[in-house]
Amino acid sequence: MISDASSLIVADKAALDTVPKLIAHHIQTRPSETAYREKEFGIWQSWTWQEAGEEMRALAMGMMGRGLKAGDHVAIIGRNRPYFYWAMVACQSVGAIPVPIYQDSVASEMAYVLNHCSARFIVAENQEQVDKVLEVQDQLENLEQVIYLDPRGMRKYDHTRLTTYRDIQAEGRANADKISVQMDRIIAKTTGQDACAMLYTSGTTGRPKGVVLSHDNVIKTSQASSEFDHLVAADSVLAYLPMAWVGDFIFSIGQASWCGFCVNCPESTDTMQQDLREIGPTYFFAPPRYFEQVLTTVLIRMEDAGTLKQKIFRHFMDFAAEVGGDMLDGKPVGLLDRLKYALGNLLVYGPLKNTLGLSRVRVGYTAGEAIGPEIFDFYRSLGINLKQLYGQTEASVFITQQPDGEVRSDTVGVPTPGVEIKINEDGEVFYRSPGSFVEYYKNKESTEKTKDKQGWVATGDAGFLEKDSGHLRIIDRAADVGKMKDGALFAPKYVENKLKFYPSILEAVVFGAGKDMCTAFINIDLQAVGNWAERNNIAYSSYQELAGNAHVYQMVQGHINEVNRDIASDEMLSGCQIHRFLILHKELDADDGELTRTRKIRRRVIQDRFKDLIDALYGGKTEIFVKTPVIYEDGTSGSISATLKIEDASVAFVKETAA
Amino acid sequence: MPAEFYYGVEVFLNGLMAGVMYSLVALGFVLIFKASGIFNYAQGIMALFAAMTLVGFQEGQIPFAHLINAVFGTEVHHFGWTMPAFFAILFALGVMLLFAFLVEKLILKHLVNQEPIILFMATIGLAYFMEGFGDLMWGSNVKKLDIGIPQGGNFWIEENTAFLGGADFYGFYLDTLDIYATVIAAVLVTSLVLFSQYTKTGRALRAVADDHQAALSVGISLRSIWVIVWGIAGFVALVAGIMWGSKSGVQFSLSLIALKALPVLMLGGFTSIPGAIIGGLIIGVGEKMFEFLIGAPLLGGATENWFAYMLALVFLVFRPQGLFGEKIIERV
Amino acid sequence: MLYREVGEFKTSYAADQQTFPIRFDKLAYFIILAFAFLVVPFLINDYWANAVLLPFLIFGIAAIGLNILTGYCGQVSLGSGGFMAVGAYACYKLMTGFPDMNLIICIILSGGVTALVGILFGLPSLRIKGFYLAVATLAAQFFLVWLFNKVGWFYNYSASGQINAPEREMLGIVISGPNSSPQAVYLVCLSFLTVLALIARNLTRGAFGRKWMAIRDMDIAAEIIGVNPLMAKLTAFGVSSFYVGIAGALLFSVYLGAVEVGEVFGIQKSFLVLFMIIIGGLGSIFGSLAGAAFLVLMPVVLKNVMVGSLGWPVDIAAHFEFLIVGSLIVFFLIVEPHGFAMLWRIIKEKLRLWPFPH
Amino acid sequence: MSRKTAKTDTKDSYVTADGRTIGPAVMEMQNITLRFGGVIAIQDISFDIREGEVRAIIGPNGAGKSSMLNVINGFYHPQEGQILYKGEVRKPLKPYEIAHQGIARTFQNIALFKGMSTLDNIMTGRLTHMKTGMLSQALWWGRAQKEEVENRAFVERIIDFLEIQSIRKVPVGRLPYGLQKRVELGRALAAEPSLLLLDEPMAGMNVEEKEDMSRFILDVNEEFGTTIALIEHDMSVVMDLADRVVVMDYGKKIGDGTPDEVRSNQAVIDAYLGVSHD
Questions:
Q1: Is the ipTM of this complex over 0.90?
Q2: Which residue from A305, A348, A360 is facing C7, i.e. has the nearest CB?
Q3: Which of A626, C306, D84, D191 is most enclosed, with most CB atoms within 10 A?
Q4: pTM (2 d.p.)
């Protein structure tokens, strides 16, 4: 983004220690290559590094002109759009720290974060976001400027503290001569030690914490991980995951500015699938949930296909399951099989990848949750190089990742170059890496709790390194790994994941810490079960009714029994078999605080929210009446009430493992 | 008085009688259009087909003889008997009714509430089909049709009008057939009018014409109505077919009178029976007189080919709704 | 199934609005074109050229023309035969009147003349709508045919009343008259079709096309949003007749060589072209060509089967032709009023969504 | 905040409470009388539409509202009275000529072009702005393509404004009623009208759709400063939308003024109490 600061032209990328410097490097070296794209007004608007740099610079100078200083925090609220990535870099180039915020968080959540980081500037997308800010503005004493992108509907607003993005840029351009030199100086003297961004962890427990990442954290990790997967400038990503999530920050800012590949932003959340298909990214990340949903829709859509088509599809998918993975891992495969696979590629795999928009994916990652083996294998058998990584905000994402050729669904891979890992006596995973965060903002004590003097960071996950392969395996959240009454190991997440691998089960919550048996709440997947219901012509009018249906109970019971049998085979966890369960009458929802924004379950919340249900499970009742308060999308609150059945599951005996 | 004048009168009278023929065909159109909103291009072919069938029965032809011979290398043509005109007509009528039934069953049923233009094109398709089918069934050779209606100039009239014109005028030459035709047509028309006025079915027809929904709501089955209407149209076609057939032989050109009927309708309006009649007369007289006064002497003749259409075209430009159609008010 | 569209994204409206936005289609298009121009000429003989290719190409042009008027602008015309005659006779007069004029120029001018005549007969369309207009266009059909029959000047008072195309050369190659080679004639017609099809596509996807379609879909609304109905309809008549005229000129000058108006340009021709666009698909260039191809090929096939293989008399085959064409029209109107074009669209969608059904 | 702050007394421009500038009259109807044969549809009605305002014409069904709209956009020609448009007396013109003068409208029962996509339908709204000749279009060279692209760009702004990106290339025939109404509004907007006529924009909509539509109408008026004249039979909808309201009944004008004035007008109350307006 430096137009004239010749002092910054550096041949060797490695010597560039801040994001703005890296970006300057790309502007210098490849000014006319495309840096950003966004689908807007029906076509893909594109910006070269040159143009993007100019935009960033204008905004940066504009904000500087408005009094933005080094060390200030700037909240950024909006969906993935180039303008906000520019805003982040713009902040960094004046030494300020960008704080992306989940755009779907409600005003109260926003108020806490904005206050906690004492943001002076806010860059917001549109009326919706601005309204939220204005709603809580009297709680925000540091707030000075709200910069908004889309002026629609805000003509009438009081503009003493509101300014449009473009006006700010215009100011910046106008005052360029005054400011640019000063700004270049700041860019020059910012170093890798300085903060690059602050990201709030969605905090499975308690208030969100502001994780401060330095430029070094971000760039070193980006470099290591990019080299690990040989990412280059020619690659491209689709930026569709929340900007406030560390992953998007690392992919779309960190790795993008290291490798200099193009970041593409969809037109809107509901056109994402279409846009994915148009862009065809080569580097793609999605949470397991996404791959599950896509697979489910694929299977559902195939249901309507003609019998011949279905036969072809099944035949070749089965075949792919046999050889597809091996071919991807470069294992030897017979010529005949290769030919047949090629045929399948023409008839099924190719078209399928084409319709899913994954044809060009060279490196695909999933993380955050365990992914169902058959789901995982399905994509790999299509020839999509889908891999798993293990990471967290505090590590600037990457802790471990799977190298090509060593990809399995049950591990999360080997440590990313530069990362050290150790497991402590109670099985908790610790790591030390160039990416490990500076501190929790304004939260010394939890910083110390998490990160010790030697720089070892506690992940809070329980797991172990496989002897032979050196791959890391995660069992569960360390905190959640408890003991049952009889002292047997209790790893709810482990069980829940196994349950969630069934398409009909959306969420599962397993209880049993300190109890003599395990019980579970089940959330059915409306799409999958609904479809199943139609095919077995089971009528239902609402989610609630479907959830309560006897056949549905039967099906779920079947799944649970299978899982029990599976768990029983592993004597360490055999105690975690589910004895009783019920199907919840409502979907667990982030708006009700039952899930985090990244859709992890909030155990404690659920525990006291549905206390009566848990008691019923253990109380041996066969049904129970509940009334649950809920918050609807429009913010109003009401309540759902229902009478839930409680069923027993068959528990397998623990196999004596023959020595 | 100069003889030219009387020749003119003679032309006029012939025109009138030709006009009656046109009206006869036009009537078929109107009936179907009123009841089903369909502009039945096939009306002319129906007339041809009816005439062919009639002849076929009369002469005891074997249907599809050519085809059979072609396929089995046989040499069959006739059953070897001939049928009295009366029965032949009855059989032919039966065929036309069957035809009406099939049309409804196979085509109209599937085209309910399509745009008129689509239906129009469908009938063009139907016309093609019937042409091929008819030729296949009875052969495409020109056939002579004679059901005993006397033909040729009517001497009585000729003799008794000769005195009008003096030395070089020999009296009006009128074809007896045309006179018969006129009478029959007149009878047919009146009976149809009476039918549609005073019978339940007739009223039903009119109801359908006015408003399909209403008709349905009072329990009139649209489809049976259509069958009836097409049946009647078939009957009309048969009559027209007989007249034209016995006049100028049964051949393809006969189907072109359908095209002649179109301008008639445009003048008379598609929904008015009297309109069809008057339109027919105007066209008949018009083209004969035009040929007599302008065409033959100045334009090299054969203007009947296009005069009717031109007349209709020009007329429409000034009165798009036709003679009797009510004014169309456009709304937003 | 064959489509691989991932990574095909548009960064400009020009790219988004091109005729073949999908790379695969564009490729197919160019391959077909190359084949038609570079390979076919070496494969054809007199029979193929005269029985199949030339009629297809020429009626293809006529069909596109009529489709512009009927399919896009919604004005049904039964006068195509007459307008083709205008093209043919204009071409004849030009060829004989200006022996040195290049035949191509003659043909294009003939198109222009026909356009004028078309506009003239289009004038009533402002007042007359629907099949009233269709019937009105019959006036054109019959009047024109009569005119060329009666007025000696048009056929240079030749005894036979026929018109014969004199021999003309282009780039030293004979392209008209008895000595023209099928290849040459084929290439001339193919070039005309290609260019005219492209032009039709451009017109129909732009402002003119929208005016026409607006008139077709709802004329009152169209007028209120600012479309001048008369202009829209007359342009449609003009362009349409231009195409039909060129088709007529080609039919006469390079294909038949000798023409007797009554039998070549009779009402049957009008219907033939109309059927082509109904079966092919109203409002579709591709449809026009598909329809033309079908109605040109079908009789040939029937003839070869019945007369050739089964040894039936020719007239029976002819009867069957009528019978089949007729039933097909009805069939299409019932089953797929939008003709081959729609079928093709559906198939294409299926291929793009493969393996999913929808 | 209240929009009902229009001044009716003065002719010169003023600023509303929500900061929109209302200019002098764009269109003045002077003693308009319209007859169909013997039937009198409109009887001696006069009112004006000011630049930048939202002007409503309301009245029970059959009050002559639609006829009035058709007079304004030249589909009907009144037998008596005259129309001043932008200060000049307007002679009887053809509807398409009126369109070229910058008056666009929507229709009570949707009049979209069923055969075309959403995009093409809205593009037809640009026809009054597209000038390239046939030749250049036939060859798709230079001017034609340039013009096409420019207008596409303009239309895309409208598509974005009306939030109908996802149906851009869908044939309008397949769209639900509410969306069709939106597309039709888009088509009218595409013409960049200096006077936009809306014929019962809310007719047959559910509450939610009505809210959306009202929002769009207000946004159009605010964002583009478009002068809007709309007719509605449902009084309630209009009151929060319009700056000024003309009330018609049986072809006569029985009230004219700000929503509040009109609401308290006895004649209006009677008319509405007398007639069911649904």
A1: no
A2: A360
A3: D191
A4: 0.85
